[in-house]
Specification:
The chain contains 14 helices and twelve strands. With about 400 residues, it is α/β, with parallel strands linked by helices. About 40% of the residues are buried. The mean pLDDT is about 90.
């Protein structure tokens, strides 16, 4: 099977990292996956603006014709997609996030005209025009209208390739099917975690490798942008301002804080970490992962921590209850408030956690996120789409 995977970015952000891992899990079963993005490593599969489109884009932006500029960008992006699809000749197409590169959802409808097509949804953007409506700013009216127009056009489309979706959590499936997606068009498949994260490392050695004190307990916090509200930025800031326990160290991974923000001796920030070995070391150095996002789908950080045997503290929201067993592999806080989760964190770190949490976390992660299992589920899903195409072609 040859699969064309479309993602706004190659390896920037949780969705694109998940897309890369899904592609590898499929390749491990002996199938071909071609990845295409705005920043693809292979120029043949990179979306780029031609000279004419670049000139028009620049000119229209300068004179303030933003709506016309958007139409030019949309037309050029669809042209690029058509070029890549015709060159690769895939058996099916698997989409991931598009909104990071401001791509039109029309690309998905265009794909479904000619190929069996599935769309892995990493948040609510494909049907609500925002990540998570309850904890994100309201989408622009134009974006809502564009989204409605897209789904109206899907309903009117007379195509032999009906659009299907994959959601990494049952929670997101429920959100999707409460909106435009039909129940029988969505299947839940978790995101895979590479085998590397299941390898065991000595905690004290990992603390020393990161220049942490082995005698102190470590609370780990990871986010692309540690100040972003959607990722729990306000709670992280509150935690840092009140973090004065002599026996605890706070380890941050992500952007957002400058050296002046980290003047406390027991707070260390590694910045953006893309190397998976370093990430694995950070998870093993930590006594727990603190995940303060007010809502999340199926975060890579939580799955990675569990795979390393590191228990997680998070809110009981989104897809997190599908990952964490409260009191067994971690802790879930019902009330979405900074005071509630910070109080629970203080209670947890004031007493020994015990090794049972780590063992249970790793066992749960192996059951949920095993790469070989996830790859097979994706192949089964995509094979069914291709088989349906063949059936319809025979009838016609």
């Amino acid at each position: 099977m040859k699969i064309l995977e479309i993602s706004d970015f190659h390896m920037t952000g949780g969705a694109s990292i998940a897309a890369s891992r899904i592609a590898q899990s499929i390749r491990d079963h002996g199938h071909q996956v071609l990845r295409s993005s705005s920043d693809s490593l292979d120029p043949n599969f990179a979306f780029f603006q031609g000279r004419k489109a670049s000139f028009l884009n620049y000119t229209l932006e300068k004179i303030g014709l933003h709506s016309l500029r958007a139409k030019v960008l949309k037309k050029d992006t669809l042209k690029q997609f058509q070029r890549i699809a015709e060159m690769s000749k895939p058996d099916c197409i698997l989409f991931h996030n598009l909104h990071g590169a401001s791509w039109s959802q029309e690309m998905v409808r265009q794909a479904a005209k000619s190929f069996p097509t599935s769309w892995t949804l990493h948040d609510c953007s494909s049907f609500l025009s925002t990540y998570y409506p309850s904890h994100c700013s309201s989408p622009l009216e134009k974006n809502l209208l564009d989204c409605k127009d897209f789904w109206d056009s899907i309903g009117r489309s007379k195509t032999v390739f009906p659009l299907h979706a994959v959601t990494p959590s049952n929670w997101l499936k429920k959100e999707a099917t409460s909106s435009y997606w039909a129940e029988d068009s969505v299947v839940t498949i978790h995101n895979p975690i590479p085998d590397l994260f299941f390898e065991t490392r000595d905690s004290d050695s990992c603390k020393k490798a990161l220049r942490l004190n082995p005698e102190k307990r470590v609370v780990l916090v990871i986010a692309g942008d540690l100040k972003e509200d959607r990722k729990g930025g306000r709670i992280i800031k509150e935690l840092m301002s009140s973090f004065s326990c002599e026996n605890i160290q706070l380890l941050l991974v992500g952007s957002g804080f400058e050296k002046d923000d980290l003047d406390q001796e027991n707070i260390k920030c590694l910045g953006i970490v893309k190397d998976e070995v370093t990430l694995q070391i950070a998870y093993h150095a930590a006594d727990l992962l603190f995940h303060p996002a007010p809502v999340d789908n199926l975060p890579n950080t939580v799955a990675e921590a569990m795979s390393c045997g590191t228990p997680v503290l998070a809110f009981q929201t989104g897809g997190l209850p599908e990952m964490i067993m409260d009191g067994e592999t971690g802790w879930l806080v019902k009330k979405i408030a900074s005071s509630s989760i910070l109080k629970t964190l203080q209670e947890i770190i004031s007493v020994p956690i015990g090794s049972n949490f780590g063992k249970a976390s790793k066992a749960k992660a192996k059951k949920l996120f095993d790469s070989q299992t996830i790859g097979k589920k994706y192949l089964d899903h995509l094979s069914k789409l291709i088989f349906r195409q063949a059936e319809i072609a025979q009838k016609n």
